[in-house]
Amino acid sequence: MTEVLKIDGLSAGYGPLRVIHDLDLIIHPGERVGIVGLNGHGKTTLFYAIAGLTGWLWLKSSDVTLIPSSPALRRSGRRH
User: How many CB atoms are closer than 10 A to CB 20?
Assistant: First the structure.
């Protein structure tokens, strides 16, 4: 089945602070997903990372911080 979103080994943060540690997530067409958690537990950082807006971003052990969003997605293995 094709994924709407697939994240493999995502780590993200700001400055020296790592907020997300090695996250894997797959969302398939038609699924509804909620991201819940306490304040300060990384929900906004996750969405910023998906959009390429965090301070730094790693996918599959590769630093993709300075790669624009579309090439970063292609590099991660996502097919358009």
Answer: 20
